[in-house]
Write a structure and sequence with these properties.
By secondary structure, the protein is an alpha/beta fold. The chain has helices at 42-54, 70-81, 124-133, 148-160, 190-197, 204-215, 255-268, 273-287, 300-308; strands at 5-9, 13-19, 34-40, 60-67, 84-92, 98-104, 110-115, 137-143, 165-168, 185-186, 221-225, 231-234, 239-242. The chain has a single domain (5-23, 33-308), classed as 3-Layer(aba) Sandwich (UDP-N-acetylmuramoyl-L-alanine:D-glutamate ligase), CATH 3.40.1190.20. Strand 4, helix 2 and strand 5 form a beta-alpha-beta unit. Helix 1 (42-54) packs across helix 7 (255-268) and helix 8 crosses helix 9.
Length: 309
Amino acid sequence: MIKKDIIVFGSLNMDLVVNTTKFPNLGETIVCDKFYTAPGGKGGNQAVAAARLASQEYKVKFIGRVGEDIFGQEILKNLKSENIDTSFVKITKNISTGIASIFIMPSGENSVNAVYGANYEIDKSQINDFEKISDNAGVLLLQQEIPDTTLKLILKTAHKKQIPVILDPAPYKENVIEFYKNINIITPNEIEASSISNTEVKDIPSAKKAARFIRNLGCDNVIITLGAKGIWIEGENISEHVKSFKVKAKSSVGAGDAFNGALGYGIVKNNNLLDSIELAIATSSMSVTREGAQNSMPLIGEVIEFINS
């Protein structure tokens, strides 16, 4: 049997991370605890999560852009070290690589200010790149950190080719909702689900209500990620809450990306949806116990041991 590829189409950022005890008010200066840089971007994080689980059993291929700067060089070097095919990552002159300023509280919760830079230069030429490698695509992982026109076009292209699509609808974009009918799995968090459904998602019943609303927009399956509370899954033959694993969180940066990367791997490996979700929850749970985004992604052996324990 020919093994299908995991295709990630999307964003690459350099994360500028600050550990802090409080968020400053306007005009206020806060002395913080720690600063470091780390390769990130939702697309990059998802690719690393999938690659570490795939362990060279399946190919992970990335389509995106970086700037012609030191951040871009470091991001590409890191992706290659994770055995990710970067043949279709274009280097763009006269614009910076995307960056994200991330502030992390002691609880592990975070806030992010992003400047997407080269990510917003992703265009139709990279849809053509996708078509070149789409014949062996087993799943396509997408995020919303790229231009709306490109996102809509890649959704239509993948749908036409009957390639399963997993979309992380972050950041929330209202004018993309009409294309949700082209999505197999959408994975909003509580904030994004609230925005899409006009329902405040604060507990399991409200997550169920929001998931049903979002599914009525045309998505085959809606998975609302609820942090420590697990997920709500709404599909054709399933409507249920799946609990998370109890862990002590250090940082929630990249947790959703760990979930999506693992979910994509599970789909390509022909796991059924619930098995893929269990793997994704375990991967995400492990990631929050570690600092960083891509650095926090666990290996397949670690995840299996974690589930069994």
